[in-house]
Design goal:
- It is a single chain.
- By secondary structure, this protein is α/β, with parallel strands linked by helices.
- The chain has a single domain, classed as 3-Layer(aba) Sandwich (Peroxisomal Thiolase, Chain A, domain 1), CATH 3.40.47.10.
- 30% of the residues lie in helices and 20% in strands.
- It is built from eleven helices and 16 strands.
- The chain is globular.
């Protein structure tokens, strides 16, 4: 088992989703059980499904000074950075520690592939990208990290984590290691993924797309809804003068059981969970709420429900919030970490939107309805293709 870590303080955090811009819009949507999902209207030939589309991305071009990085994904990133005063918090951290001492670790599963799709659809007779799309950095997996590093004028370590749907959960683990190793004094973490044809049609080819709003853990679930989102958090060393919730632990694993199906006994998920609790010096009975991965796919929900039923007491509340935002892929980790932090801050546990009859694999932990609750410790689960898993442990301000 890993040793306990020194907690890190989250001194700023934000998320922009289909529920709106910033964490207050997300909190209100959760509290009023208002979903951000809508009928798919993305692309020239929309699939019959529902999506979590962020309003206004098309009308928000990047500032002229950022034109080199222009694309939907980076537009969404800029929208996210400007919510909840996060841009000012990042600038204050740069001034406090120095531009070279603030690390940047961002997760994404598709980066700016939507721009590459657009370019391929407009090839010149010579087989070249059209001139306005010949911006090489946009067509790389590191487009997001490169853009945000320049937008924030940072000079420290800058990394892209691309581990499918666990990407922007694993950024917290990377950041903790960088700070503990003395390579940075603070870290900005986050994730951004935007809607694109490759993802929508790719998941459709895997027969994982639902034609209706997703129903996590429901006996009649029919698959996932794709969403888009941007989220960020600022991590600093914990001290008496700091305010905000804390990252207490994390666990990572890669069981490599199958390219797109979880291990039938959830071995990788169990290992990540055990390591997160060990690093946070907590046990399962200490956990008041779990934000589950809960994609509404058949196997993921079944395996995850069994792990929770086996490891946690009935008093632990657990739910999937993808009925509000859709599955935001590489941004799912940060979005659901923010939801977990909102639960800690506001004393409520979201339910599982759209589900009506729970899968028999579910224990009493999985709840359908929102509940007021005193939440001191909470977990966020993120499980990606290829058996790539991450569990985050957060605690309140005390």
């Amino acid at each position: 088992m890993p040793r306990p870590i020194s907690p890190l303080r989250l001194t700023a955090y934000t998320a922009t989703t289909a529920c709106g811009i910033g964490r207050e819009a997300l909190r209100v949507a959760l509290a009023t059980r208002r979903s951000g999902l809508r009928r798919n209207d993305f692309g020239r030939d929309p699939l019959p499904t529902f999506i979590g589309r962020v309003e206004g991305v098309e009308d928000a071009p990047l500032p002229a000074a950022h034109a080199e990085w222009e694309c939907r994904n980076n537009r969404l990133a800029w929208m996210g950075l400007n919510a909840d005063g996060f841009l000012a918090a990042a600038q204050a951290a740069r001034a406090k520690y120095g531009a070279a001492r603030v690390a940047l670790v961002l997760g994404t599963s598709t980066s700016s592939i939507g721009a590459s799709e657009e370019a391929y659809a407009q090839l010149t007779p010579e087989g070249l990208y059209p001139p306005e799309l010949r911006r090489p950095i946009v067509h790389t997996p590191h487009s997001l990290g490169d853009y945000v590093q320049h937008a924030l004028a940072l000079e420290g370590p800058c990394m892209t984590v691309a581990t499918a749907c666990s990407s922007s959960a694993k950024v917290f683990a990377q950041a903790e290691r960088l700070i503990r190793a003395g390579l940075a004094d603070a870290a900005i973490v986050g994730g951004v993924d935007s809607l694109c044809g490759s993802v929508l049609f790719g998941f459709h080819a895997l027969e994982l797309i639902s034609p209706e709003p997703c129903r996590p853990f429901d006996t009649a679930r029919r698959g996932i809804n794709i969403g888009e989102a941007a989220g960020f958090a600022l991590l600093e060393r914990d001290d008496a003068a700091s305010a905000g919730p804390r990252l207490l632990g994390y666990g990572e694993s890669s069981d490599a059981h199958h390219m797109s199906t979880p291990h039938p006994q959830g071995e990788g998920a169990r290992r990540a969970l055990s390591d997160a609790l060990a690093r946070g010096a907590r046990v399962a009975a200490d956990i008041d709420y779990i934000n589950l991965h809960g994609t509404a796919s058949l196997k993921n929900d079944e395996v995850e429900a069994a792990v929770v039923a086996d490891r946690f007491p009935a008093t632990t509340r657990a739910s999937s919030t993808k009925g509000w935002t859709g599955h935001t892929l590489g941004a799912a980790g940060i979005v659901e970490a923010v939801i977990t932090l909102l639960a800690l801050e506001h004393g409520f546990a979201p339910g599982t939107l759209n589900a009506q009859t729970l899968d028999p694999a579910c224990g009493p932990q999985v709840r359908l309805d929102n509940e007021a609750a005193s939440i001191r410790h909470a977990l966020s689960f993120s499980f990606g293709f290829g058996g790539n898993n991450c569990v985050l442990l957060f605690g309140g301000t005390a």
